[in-house]
Amino acid sequence: MRELTVVWDFNGTLLDDLQACLDALNVLLRARQLAPVDRDYYRNHFGFPVIHFYERLGLIPVDAEDWENIGESFHMRYLFSKHLKLQPHAAETVMALHTAGVRQGVLSALEQGLLELQLEQFGLAHRMDFISGSRSYDGASKADAAAALKLKAPIVLVGDTEHDAEVARAQGWSCVLCSAGHQTEERLRKWGFPVIPSLQELVPFLKATFAI
């Protein structure tokens, strides 16, 4: 068996939180008399850093404190959403990789405490060898956190956004992108990495590619 480390993105990849994000975002937009967005628009335009996406919607913070307040307001609504759930096949995929002896961890732009809380809530924390989140709620880049992990190859980042592809390429990691999350298959395929429609396809792909 070949050693392998799988670096999971969380939001949109392991966690199906698209509707929760849409609902929380639209509350913020309406509060500032801005037009709400639908699922198609979101998946075609969402990206990192999140502040650039918000600015395109007209949700422009006046200063750093305002941006922090926007982030905290979003997450307080997001946390209480009834739509938060694991992606289909997420739990069994994590378990299958664990059984196969694959090292796993999470690299996320989500605030560290909230990330740990949600991984625990959905029963995944004890399967992770490392959990790397953000120090804030601002949805910034994961590039520096990725570089700090100092992982041993081979490494596969599994994510659902172009930013995941960008991070993997910068680190020289392999990458598999899942189109069931926050961005469309069309956007993801532009990066040249394998794209799967659901996590059900991940273990067979890794077995064929890395002989796990």
CATH architecture of the largest domain: 3-Layer(aba) Sandwich
- Radius of gyration over all CA atoms, rounded: 17 Å
Query: Main beta sheet, described?
Result: 6 strands, parallel
Please tell me what the overall shape is.
globular
Label the structural class: alpha/beta
Give the spatial strand order of the biggest sheet.
Answer: 5-4-1-6-7-8
How many DSSP E strands?
8
Q: Give the SSE order as H and E letters.
A: EEHHHHEHEHEHEHEHEH
Q: In CATH, what is the homologous superfamily of the largest domain?
A: HAD superfamily/HAD-like
The overall pLDDT, averaged over residues, is 95
Sequence stretches where pLDDT stays below 50 over 5 or more residues: none
Oligomeric description of these chains: single chain
- Quickly count the domains: 2
What name is given to the CATH topology of the largest domain? Rossmann fold
CATH class of the largest domain: Alpha Beta
The proportion of residues in beta strands is 15-25%
Gap between N and C termini, in Å? Answer: 5 Å
Can you characterise this structure?
- The structure is a single chain.
- This protein has 212 residues and is of the alpha/beta class.
- The chain has two domains: 5-17 and 85-210, 3-Layer(aba) Sandwich (Rossmann fold); 18-79.
- Helices cover 44% and strands 16% of the residues.
- Strands 5-4-1-6-7-8 form a six-stranded parallel β-sheet, sandwiched between helices.
- Strand 7 (174-178), helix 9 and strand 8 form a beta-alpha-beta unit.
